[in-house]
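From the pipeline queue, job 12 of 40. The input is one protein chain; the requested action is below.

Action: predict structure.
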Amino acid sequence: MNFDKLIKEKKKGFYFRIDVGKDPATGKRKQVSFGPFRTKTEAKKELLKIKAQVDDGSYFKESTEDVN
């Protein structure tokens, strides 16, 4: 997979969006955006790290919802 195509340059730096799994409630795919990164190399390193975490099931993003 060519990860360079996933990384986009915008005004404030480099960004990427990646699938992190499926939403259990709806069954739809869940995407998360990351950035800005100062360089494309930084963005690519972070993309590879997150992709590896997603693939082995250890990716976790904190929820902003309150649990009562």
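Job complete. The longest helix spans residues 40-56.
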